[in-house]
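The aim of this short unit is practical: by the end, you should be able to scan a pair of folded records and say something sensible about each. We start with the first protein, listed as its amino acid sequence and then its structure tokens.
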Amino acid sequence: MALVGLVRVSTSAQETARQHDALDPICVKVFEEKRSGKLKLAERPGLQAALDYMRPGDMLTVQEADRLGRNLLEGLTVLAALFEQGIAVKILDGIAAGEHTERNFLLDLALALAEDRRRDIVRKTRDGLEAAARRGNLGGRPRVVDDDKRRAILARRAEGQSLREISRGVGVSLAVVHAEVKAAELDTSDVPVPTPAPASQC
């Protein structure tokens, strides 16, 4: 049995280094796709290439359950299709970490929590942007980055990228990224928001 890896991000601007760091050392081959998850396997070129490469007994491997789909419905649809074909899935991190040959409670929960976490991060980022705009109208503190870069930083953070990935992708220092993310969090500190699941911070 061999492990065949799948790396997925939603846009070409996102970094894949963290997933490769987890998969490359243990997989015989790692496939990558930079596009939003789709409901049909045929619309997922990286996933389809991985399946075409796999031999009987091989196991599709992802870092976290939500790499199979960007939300609960897509993740469950992909898993159902894989299990129907007799393809086992190995998940490295998160509450569903382990090997799976059929749908189960932990897989459902992992995908549901990931979708809920992403929704909360997007909402928190949106609220932070709105609060910053209001502060700016009142003469708030000057920014060391322009509005376009700040929006890019917060949008990437909402997608779950690490601070170091954002720094490389936007072309600003790690300290600047940290300051902008922290400022957005402070803007909404009076709004109860669940703490995001552990992720690479640097």
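Turning to the second protein, read its sequence before its tokens, just as you did above.
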Amino acid sequence: MDLSIGEVARRSGLSVHALRFYEREGLFANPVRRLSNGRRIYHEEDVEWLAICTRLRSSGMSLATIRQYIELVRQGPGNEHDRLELLRRHATHVEGQIRELQEALDVMRHKVRIYEEHVVRGEADRLWNPSRTNPVSSGARQECRPPEEA
């Protein structure tokens, strides 16, 4: 079934502008077909590829790496090991990002817990303040310490 750019935009969640950008950047697995009047025609497989492509982008895969992956796909059978290596390399990168985000979340949760405790006790004014020359309260020391020390 032929789909218009508007239909693909609605189904993919991408704007018409983004679809044109993806086409210009060579990010479609198959070249976008056009009617004799120049209107773009898409197919179901284009929508399916866009779902994969947008996930790769949202995971931080660069446009250059996506293009490299697409080029391998376009070459057809015989380079599956190269595709697999590219995807494994990116998965390892994403796992590292997840670890970093988890560490950041742990720090945020620690700080939230400290603030909640101080607010409940009515001691929020004892939290660390960088304008103080000598932060001596235990709250000041607690707030500065990383989660594993508190």
